[in-house]
Amino acid sequence: MEEKEVSLATRSFRRVRKKKPMYKNGIYRETDKMSDLICENYPMVLVMSRFGIALGFGEENIGEVCRRNGVDAYTFLTVVNFLAEDVNLPVEPVSERLSIENLIRYLHNAHDYFLNFRLPHIRRKLVDAISGCPEDVVFVITKFFDDYAEEVNKHMAYEERAVFPYVRNLLAGQKDSKYNISIFRKRHDQIEMKITELKNILIKYYPGKGSNLLNSVLFDIFATEEDLASHTRVEDYLFVPAILALEKRL
């Protein structure tokens, strides 16, 4: 049998992108209708909300809606296209053009959504769904969820307490000799991984009978896991590079 020599230097590699057939992939522009963006990629309704944009924009295009709401259209579209394309690469060329104020608003509103709406909502449904289980099972599952929610709270509270004030000072021209964004980047753990454990407990070890409510809780957990992953990607690949660029300019 003839052996064929394979040279890694001559092979071409391409990154395989996970396809999402229910969503439109492609570059959205200011001239596209905001309603088309939401209908074609419905998770973007959360992105829109986190930039402070409400529903009810009629036939206005993305640029018009952004300007009417005081949102930098370039930053909005960068986040939208970054998430719609599902890539994990630093976006270096755009770092200096992003509105850092808008990114902070986006991240802050995401924190508020997770901590004050999404996680409490899931907990209420979870408690109802497992109410028929033995008390020790109910205790273990709810404690696991509460411990997870506390970890998320600590993670996001650190950003609100330390990272965002630091960045706002940078924007005002004030540097901190004891802190930089690389400190945040090194300690930035993947909080969405923790919710995977709760999901697996319910899928593999839940002792009670299945129900529509429990299935709904599980669906919410899957959606939250994906949403947290997207949130982390925006921080790692858009926010952090933008702050690094800002630090270099000062």
From TrEMBL:
<dbReference type="GO" id="GO:0046872">
    <property type="term" value="F:metal ion binding"/>
</dbReference>
<dbReference type="GO" id="GO:0005737">
    <property type="term" value="C:cytoplasm"/>
</dbReference>
<feature type="domain" description="Hemerythrin-like">
    <location>
        <begin position="103"/>
        <end position="243"/>
    </location>
</feature>
<dbReference type="InterPro" id="IPR012312">
    <property type="entry name" value="Hemerythrin-like"/>
</dbReference>
<dbReference type="Pfam" id="PF01814">
    <property type="entry name" value="Hemerythrin"/>
</dbReference>
<keyword id="KW-0479">Metal-binding</keyword>
<keyword id="KW-0408">Iron</keyword>
<keyword id="KW-0963">Cytoplasm</keyword>
<dbReference type="InterPro" id="IPR019903">
    <property type="entry name" value="RIC_family"/>
</dbReference>
<protein>
    <submittedName>
        <fullName>Hemerythrin domain-containing protein</fullName>
    </submittedName>
</protein>
